[in-house]
Amino acid sequence: MHSQRNRWRRDRVLLLLALPGVTALLLFHYLPLGGNIIAFQDFQPFLGIWHSPYVGLDNFEPVLTGDPVFLNALVNTLIITLIQVVFVFPLPICLALILNATISERLKRLTQSILYMPHFLSWVIVVALFQQMFGNGGMLNGWLRSADLSTFHIVGVPELFKLMITSQVIWKDTGWSTIIFLAALSRVDPAQMEAAVVDGASAVRRLWHVTLPSIRAVIVLLLILRLGDSLSVGFEQIILQQAQVGAGASEVLDTYVYNHGIVGGDWGTAAAVGLIKGIVGVALVLGANRAAHALGEQGVYTK
């Protein structure tokens, strides 16, 4: 007890510095979890949580009975998640490896600065830029017309929507995502790399046997966190473009919650879908973390 009191006294400055962040976390992340009770109510805003009648599991009916609109949103979400995990997640790793191998420090810093800039643009600006570049009357089609070449449509085509939003995510966030991997690469043991060079290992073998194993823990950690957020595929980005391609191609779980809850006034069903999405996310994190432990990695937390 005395030792605990001494630690509190010793770390009081750090605890005071952490207090605003902890308070914000409690107020804006944990306290709102109580609002999930709406998923079991026929919620009416003018009645509030305390007086809205309970309806049991009625709000989960679209999920349990396979409502076509919900299934369409679920399928679109899973497809986009699969695309982004398979194709988008590895790109920052590859880019970080390329930057780390750059000999010129000045060139490396310049390239990093250019790659980081798109991250600071809002999705409104990013979507507008892509429309100006690849839209019907965009720069690309304007140049093709001036050269008497046939034009083609990318923006607003439902069949190409998933390709379009994936391209936007890659352009906007790949550079910024390299920061963590570059930090991990800076901790690669130079002695191991020098020993590999002395043993005659090629650049590919040094990459496979020295570099990647050194950052494997970071890759596993970020992959687990990405899986936990896998059912959230970019609400703002998609809702800005949904009117152009229609709900059939662009409806995902986040927009389903918005369209049915805020726009349609079906608060209970929207909350039920959001609750299920959160539970699945937690289950994915726990499952992926257990798999990481089985493979000898630390994961998000230790056993």
Automatic annotation (TrEMBL):
Entries under InterPro entries matching the protein: MetI-like, MetI-like_sf, UgpAE/MalFG_permease
Predominant subcellular localization, coarse grouping: membrane
GO molecular function annotations of the record: ATP binding
Domain of life assignment: Bacteria
Swiss-Prot/TrEMBL keywords: ATP-binding, Cell membrane, Membrane, Nucleotide-binding, Transmembrane, Transmembrane helix, Transport
Family matches, as SUPFAM superfamilies: MetI-like
UniProt-listed Pfam families: BPD_transp_1
Family: Belongs to the binding-protein-dependent transport system permease family.
Name the record gives this protein: Polysaccharide ABC transporter ATP-binding protein
UniProt source species: Plantactinospora endophytica
